[in-house]
User: Fold this.
Amino acid sequence: MLFASPGIDTAAPKATRIDLFSAATPQMRAFHVTWLAFFVCFFAWFAAAPLMPLIKAEFGLSKDQIANINIAAVAVTILVRLVVGPLCDRFGPRRTYTWLLLIGAIPVFGLAFAQTYETFLFFRLAIGAIGASFVITQYHTSVMFAPNVVGTANATVGGWGNAGGGAAQSLMPLVVAALVGLGVEHAFGWRAAMFVPGVAMVAMAFVYARYTQDTPQGDIVDLRAAGIDLDGGKATGMAIFRRAAANYRTWMLAATYGACFGVEIFIHNIAASYYVDRFGLSLTNAGLAAGIFGGLALFARALGGIASDRIALVKGLDGRALLLFALMLGEGVGLVLFGHAGSVTLAILAMTMFGLFTHMACGATYALVPFIDRKALGGVAGLIGAGGNIGAVAAGFLNKASATPQQCLIVLGYVVAGTAVCALAVRFSATHKSDERALLDAALDARRTSDRSVNRALPA
Assistant:
């Protein structure tokens, strides 16, 4: 059976450490499988973006039509992210992720058969649903890891998964080039290349169902059926969503996420075309240049989460918010410099600078998410994740209205810098901070106890 129960272990705790080279525990299996699934989803989500110069030529697309395609690619994700958070609370991340992968593969395959602008736009819109995979990824690691490492875990799986977007920028043009080298036409080459991410999604769905479980104790459906209380209590669905929406911190972080992750996926959609149109690079070289931005996700988002966990040891939750504010300011300055860059070398340097801050800000945002409201984690994660896509859609409309992409980037930089104040607005009550500090101290004590046990077990 696809969803065979992994069993229940009520004594299993959240992990207090990240053992990167292990998959022996449910926590580390979830860690590795969820970032792999997220990588595949992001690869599929942006697989068509670096091929847009070919698609533009085949369909004779106008500037407005290309803008519409880029907006469609991220628009539907807003709605799906709002839905999958509560679905995780009700059915668990394992079931939710598996079905998202299977259903999301359909429009990826469909894109290969598009013959008109309208059908291409439809499938590009539908593909956007798989962007909701991020919410499930963050939910899954949030329930698997303790407060002392949850920020690092969330940021690392998010960053490694986000790298799928960068990999698509670099690899999809190479796949097409290889097919053309075998003698096929460009029009067939880009279509055949879309089967690579589609097949990977189907395979990943079965891996996720087979090798993960929802929580350290077992699957949420099984735990609830056995009468075992969860962090969310008995609330499900809309009750969790309403609780999350009533928390003003959710909306502040939705705004910051719109200004960092929204910018990230906007850049994924336009970067290759930007380097082709502005600097005259070939499709392959433009893809490699754009891939640098996505490649930063391999470590930069994790760096944001690690920094957030470290500062929380000293400054608590307020320190996490202050770090996010500083990273958002750096991102805004870098974006302005990228827009002003007059050569490909300066553009790549500026893109690398603001990309570093952007990915770190994404990691720092979701390092805060598990602490907003533990009883509405799915709703909080979904709403904040949707904020990221709202930011991407807004950036798409700004680009459509701007005289040039450079003008759009400069304006976007100032908007991001202004949005940084939302991070400063995230504040917690003394009771909230005291409760979270107690949980953090308990996790640190558990880790020290575990370390002592390991040391005693080692041969002298």
About this structure: The two ends are 47 Å apart (CA to CA). The chain has a mean pLDDT of 92. The CA atoms of residues 419 and 444 lie 34 Å apart.
